[in-house]
Amino acid sequence: MKYKILVVEDNKDDAAQLISTCHQAGFQTSQADSGEKALEMVWTWKPDMLLLDLALPGINGKEVCRILRDDERGRAIPLIMVTAAKERADVLAGFAAGTDDYLAKPVEPQELVARMNAVLKRYHKKNGEAEVLRVGKVTLDLSKHRVEVDGQQVKLTGKEFGLLEVLMKKSGRVLSRQFLLEYVWGYEEEVLTRTIDMHIARLRQKLGDEGRERIQTVERFGYRFSDE
Question: 208-213 contacts: CB < 8 A, separation 24 or more?
Fold first, then answer.
């Protein structure tokens, strides 16, 4: 399958570099040079992934991300922010908006492709994998990228969905922060391990009583999703 990648970048040189990297990796690409154009192309061209800059004319990258994550169709689209904003506050704000990964410019092509493949792998389920996971009152539908608690839909970011997916798949087992980092983020990055705790806290809050009861902290190790 040749994945369709929408490059959302208004700088011509940066866009050309990203497009070249994608083509060399076997991806099909198209480009949007504004937030408005990106949102239009999401619904018409239907990309498999977005590479999204933050500093865009009109609607900025974080707002594009939030708009997509507030739409059920948009939540099913993987998204990586590729931007010159590299301060820790910018990174955390990007994840809070719903990005699946975050890369600071200048981008190393091999690292970009590795992260793209890792995110795409998480979104596209393997053959034979169960489409719907159920533990207690929590239901996770992989094909629809939808989560419900006691029949009520819960809106999650891409990272929150990925964390819940692996926790439910391995319910009852203790999972280390390092394992969760590699599974959900797709690479090893020590500086981001603390963001797992932040995402877990938000996941618990969004799932309500079920989240607080089932997502258990195992001190000095990681987390467990209780199936009892």
Answer: 208/149, 210/136, 210/137, 210/138, 210/149, 210/150, 211/149
User: Cis omega before residue 106 (within 30°)?
Assistant: yes
Q: Which pLDDT score, from 0 to 100, does residue 193 have?
A: 66
* Reported pTM: 0.62
**Structural domain boundaries enclosing 25:** 4-124
Residue 21 CB neighbour total at 10 angstroms: 21
| CATH at 179 | 1.10.10.10
Q: Which residues contact 67 (CB under 8 A, 6 or more apart)?
A: 39, 59, 74
Residues present in the chain in total: 228
C-alpha to C-alpha distance for 191 and 185, rounded to whole angstroms: 12
Domain boundary residue, one of 124, 145, 180: 124
**SS3 assignment for 159-172:** HHHHHHHHHHHCCC
Of the two residues 72 and 91, the one the predictor is more confident about is: 91
